[in-house]
Design goal:
It contains 10 helices and 11 strands. With about 290 residues, it is α/β, with parallel strands linked by helices. The structure holds adenosine monophosphate (AMP).
Amino acid sequence: MEIVNRIPRMQAISRRLRKEGKKIGFVPTMGALHEGHLSLISRARTMSDVVVVSIFVNPIQFGKGEDFDKYPRDLAKDAELVTDRGVDYLFAPNRDEVYPKDYSTYVLVEDLSDKLCGLSRPGHFRGVTTVVMKLLNIVRPNFCFFGQKDGQQAVIIKRMIRDLCVDTEMVVCPIVRDSDGLALSSRNIYLNKEERSAATVLFRALNKGKQLFEEGETEAARIIAAMQQVIEAEPLARIDYVALVDPETLEDVYVLEEDRKVMAAVAVYIGSTRLIDNMIFGEKPTFTYSEEDL
Ligand code: AMP
């Protein structure tokens, strides 16, 4: 595995690989890698000749007062974790090269970026789509892999790839969870012991919603209220949002129908840590458990 820091070097590698007819699979991350990221890498491995993983904590997707400064960074540890996982290139560009002083170009997917997480994190998705577009231009992958864990992000990037005719195929991989249901996230390390156990409330709320949906409840408002109740019963939790939305448009769904998929999405503060999770109602469970748990 080669660690690549410079953008021109990564571009030269990609150019050569494409010329040789190799299929490039790309997994963009912010590092602090866990089994969720590794599941994307495994999937990339099965579909591509060469796997590129990027690690870049993207400053422009963090708002004022968010956790950019304390976000976990340990490139050596990440490199060790992906060794023997079939990663060929670990691309870790530096901030000044990604965003030179006079940087002035941004990518915004309108409307979708203002909903759900966009409401409490203005500018977040503009930062995400800008960096992902840049990374796709640098790596030029045949396939790129994202997690359903960040459900809204996946929808927005899918739309960006379509709208801007980006020559790549996007693959969305299932959510990897701990044995108690908590979705793996780099931010889980911020949780102390009590918070870690309270954090299962996101999964419990989603399951409550799913149960009502499967029992035939069609009123979204009732399902949302029941999910909110589960979260409100947890003293360390504070709701940012609980929503039932269309999985493509992210528009609110008011009445659930049998043949229509719905994405239940939640964002909850556990202490000062904001966690997100989601579940698609109307399809088989879209999560897997971490290999460590099995
Ligand atoms: P991040 O490093 O948090 O930006 O995540 C990088 C990629 O890994 C994104 O596409 C995430 O959706 C995905 N990811 C993060 N956590 C999980 C998880 N628990 N299961 C599946 N994919 C995940």
